[in-house]
Structures are given as structure tokens and as C-alpha cells.
Amino acid sequence: GDMMKILVFTVYIIGISTVTGIQILLSMNKERNLLFSSVGGTAVNILLNWLLIPKLFGVGAAIATVLAEIAVLFLQIMFLYRMNIKVPILRLSVKAFVGTVFAVAAAFILQGWIPMNGLLEIIVTAIVFAVVYLTMLLVLKEEIASDLVHMVLHRRKK
Fold first, then answer.
1. Rounded to the nearest 5 degrees, what angle is found at the Cα of 135, between the Cα atoms of 131 and 141?
2. Which of 12, 113, 140, 158 has the greatest count of CB atoms below 10 A from its CB?
3. What's the rounded mean pLDDT across residues 90-107?
4. Rounded to an integer, what distance in angstroms lies between the CA atom of residue 66 and that of residue 39?
């Protein structure tokens, strides 16, 4: 329910931080910066969970997770900026945003058609979201998703 609606934003944020962290920082041998951004995100998550869960329960935990992922992305962009590397956030995020919108719409439509609750709702919603999100990224010819699918299909043929 409400937790899933909040957590869906992490897909979008993690999609961008995967590029800034794994593809850029790691490829430049900046593992320490990547580690520091992860530790910073963990610290934000722990602090916000401690503050928000007593009042908001699961919704508080979901908010803490989203804000922690934003902190990770912010730290990575800050490190890259210090190295004089400008990250084209808008260009990186448009395809992820479009994929997220379609995936969220599909998940909500599914929830409206099929009465579910609890664990079944989370599992089915997650599967539908993932399939629609990946499909949209492939339709939009997003490079990382295309490379990932190509790698998985290529590996199976061997």
C-alpha cells in the first residue's frame, strides 16, 4: 500500500546512482568515494529510521529509505563535481522516469483489477513493476538495460 507508493521512488534514484557510482566512480578507481557515499546513505537511513518509525511505522521506514538513497546520489554527484565531472542528471533520468511512470501505472492498475493484500500484493506488484520497467527501458533503448539483457541472453547461449 502506502509503503510501496513511497518506495517506488527508490527505483528511479538508484537507477541514477548506479550510473554515478558503479559506472563512473568505480570505473575511475574511486572505490573510497563509492564506499563513503554508501556509508553516508546508511547513516542517514539509520538516523531517519530511529526518528520516523516510532511515529509513522512502515511509512516512516519507507521515507527514510528514499531519503537515504537521495543522500547516496547527492554524495556521489558531489564527489564527481569535485573531480570536475558534470553528470547529465536530466539526460540520465528521463528514461528512468518514463519507465517508472509506466511501471507505477501498471502496478496500480493491476491492484485495482485483482483484489490482493499482504505478501501476495507485494510480490505480484514487484514482478509487474519490474517487467514493465525493464520493458520500457528496452523500448526507450536505454543503454544499461540493453547491455544487461544482451549479457544475460548471450551468457545463456554458451
1. 150
2. 12
3. 83
4. 15
Instruction: For residue 148, give Cα distances in angstroms to 15, 92, 138, 151, 155.
Output: 13, 16, 10, 5, 11
C-alpha cell recorded at residue 58: 512502515
Residues 6+ apart with CB under 8 A from 147: none
Tell me which amino acid residue 59 is: V
Q: Of 76, 84, 82, which Cα lies nearest the Cα of 16?
A: 76
Q: How far is CA 110 from CA 10, 17, 104, 113, 121, in A?
A: 20, 29, 10, 5, 10
Give the tens place of pLDDT for each residue, 44-74: 999 999 999 999 999 999 999 999 999 999 9
User: Would you state the cell numbers that stand for residue 41, as one nine-digit string?
Assistant: 546513505
Q: What's the CA gap between 119 and 125, in Å, rounded?
A: 10
Dist CA 18 CA 9 (whole Å): 14
Rounded to whole angstroms, how far apart are CA atoms 114 and 136?
23
Q: 124, 135 in Cβ contact below 8 A?
A: no
Highest-scoring range by mean pLDDT, 20-34, 40-54, 83-97, 108-122: 40-54
CB atoms within 10 A of CB 122: 14
